[in-house]
Design goal:
The complex is a heterodimer. Chain A is an alpha+beta fold. Helix content of chain A is 24%, strand content 23%. Chain B has one domain. The chains are: A alpha+beta, B mainly alpha. The A-B interface holds A 11, 18, 21-22, 24-26, 28-29, 32, 34-37, 39 and B 57, 59-65, 68, 319-320, 322-324, 339, 343.
Chain lengths: 158, 361
Amino acid sequence: MKSIIDYFKGIFLGLRSLVKGMAVTGHYIAHPKEIITQQYPENRESLKMFERFRGEVVLLHDENNEHKCTGCSACEVACPNGPIEIIPKRVEIDGRKVKAIDQFVYHLQMCTMCGLCIPACPTDAIVMANTFEHAVYDRDKLTKILNKHGSKIMDGIK
Amino acid sequence: MDWLYDFSILTHGIHEGLSGRFEPARVVVIEMVLAGLAFMILFAVLGLVLVYAERKVSAFFQQRLGPMRVGFWGTAQTLADVIKLLMKEPLINKNADRFLFNLAPYIIMIAAFMAMAALPFAKGLQALDFDIGLLYISAVSSLGVVGILLAGWSSDNKYSLIGALRSGAQIISYELSVGLSLLTIVVLTGSLQLSVIVESQANGWWIFKGHLPAVIAFIVFLIASTAETNRGPFDLAEAESELTAGFHTEYSGLKFAFFFLAEFANMFIVSALGATVFLGGWMPFHIGGWEGFNQVMDYIPPIFWFLGKVGFMIFMMMWFRWTFPRLRIDQLLTLEWKYLLPVNLMNILVMAFLALMGWHF
């Protein structure tokens, strides 16, 4: 008797689960506004990239062309692949020589966008930008110098 | 526009026009050619429309957009695919049985053609009206399995062979359920002739007139016909991870396109069969007593009623395909032999009892 009950129960439960599944996909087809696909080149103007998307490393500059990078190389050490290359120099501040950056070299072609350099920075000088159109015709253009020409370190950052 | 409501006006007009010009033997030949041409065009259009519909519907079920680039909303996508397939090189394995390898796609296509010929599309639009039409269609549509087995056997590829045997086991098993669920309605109609079955539904479709047994038979038919056409969730014959593409692994170009087209044609055929037997074929939807409503329904030509019902059935099959996870081969055979078949046999007995007592409408 139990096996007979189980048989019909199986049919009923099976059908119910199938109907539930169809309700889910039925909801999808009935709500075309929830479609996730983006028509990329057409919606280039209106496209808004997600905030947490990691596209490339940038060195933040303020309006006085000043950045927070001390040239400590912590990001270079934290980076697993070696796209970050800090070329330091010695500058004289208040009569004593201090380490600073000459060039913050960033090889985009080697970067995996893992983002390990961001928390490694003690002064929060670098962030991940959510840009994504990185294609160029010349490989050399992928090697970027992140500190702008003539920029210098902000006051009070050590 | 009368011919849109009764196609026999159009066909008689063509017949008389030809008879006035040619001798009878030639008229028969010309009419056969015309009918064949009509079916070929229907086949080509079906292939184009259904492939596009499948891709679009599947996309919307998965919150995607599907093809969007070629033509407006991707409408020319299938045309582009056809051109691509035509330009592909037809490869044949070195040790393949060349004759059978080339024969297999044609057998599948011919089976689909033969089944299509007996379908009642609209009033007076039916190429062959056998008195055993239902039996004929189920017999002919199971011919396709010969083509599948030949394709698997002649390819000289173990994946093709395993895929073909799986497909054969599946189609032969589920043929039983399709046949029995259709028989449940034949108990009520008392005839296997498709035009009679359609006429018997003038005062209501069998799915409404036949009470619960008809609904159960309809559900069984939907499941079994999905399996019979080798579509998901029963598409075990094409398991990418284990069997690559199953029985048509070794086919390319136009011959592959034939298999692809036959799959969609078979989908159309089983949907049309279900629409004819359960949903009243080209009969419009009527509610007893609502005269105004019934007249509006009558105003829609029968061919659109038929195509609409077939479209509904095809949409259901696509819904199944893009919702359910596929079955394992043992689950597939368990479903057929332990669930569908016993339920079906009980159902047919109940239906026979209902028909005997005259409890249906």
